[in-house]
């Protein structure tokens, strides 16, 4: 369902939260769809269940997920759309991480832009 970048300075719970939000926004997680249990996702990602629980709690408080006692956790039927400001902030943060990685690798701006464009064309924009 999700992958983590352990070299990313963002907390793991934040990466999970952003990953779920992206999948909901892109439509790859549809309203009403079940999400993995806290234990299952923690096992799959090889992390502490409390980390997943924190991300799920924040997503529930934001109205992205709903918990049905005894049944599981699901994408809300009408999850809130990401605001323009939140979308811009998320994009800027990701761009900063990408630019930092490219600079660390010694890649110039043109080569970094070409790599991004190549991935975009292949459909990885979601």
Listing every helix as H and every strand as E from the N terminus to the C terminus, the arrangement reads HEHHEEHH
Proportion of residues in helical segments: 55-70%
| CATH-derived topology of the largest domain | Arc Repressor Mutant, subunit A
* Tally of strands: 3
CATH superfamily of the largest domain: Winged helix-like DNA-binding domain superfamily/Winged helix DNA-binding domain
User: What is the overall shape?
Assistant: globular
Could you say which structural class the secondary elements and strand pairing correspond to?
A: mainly alpha
Strand order of the largest sheet: 1-3-2
Question: Do you know the CATH architecture of the largest domain?
Answer: Orthogonal Bundle
- What's the alpha carbon Rg, rounded to whole Å? 16 Å
Low-confidence sequence ranges: none
Q: What is the residue-mean pLDDT, rounded to a whole number? A: 89
């Amino acid at each position: 369902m999700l992958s983590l970048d352990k070299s990313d300075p963002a907390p793991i719970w934040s990466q999970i939260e952003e990953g779920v939000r992206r999948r909901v926004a892109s439509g790859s997680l549809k309203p009403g769809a079940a999400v993995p249990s806290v234990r299952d996702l923690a096992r799959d990602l090889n992390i502490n269940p409390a980390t997943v629980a924190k991300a799920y709690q924040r997503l529930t408080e934001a109205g992205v997920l709903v918990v049905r006692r005894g049944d599981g956790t699901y994408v809300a039927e009408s999850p809130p759309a990401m605001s323009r400001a939140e979308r811009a902030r998320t994009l800027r943060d990701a761009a900063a991480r990408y630019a930092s990685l490219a600079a660390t690798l010694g890649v110039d701006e043109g080569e970094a832009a070409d790599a991004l464009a190549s991935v975009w064309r292949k459909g990885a924009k979601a």
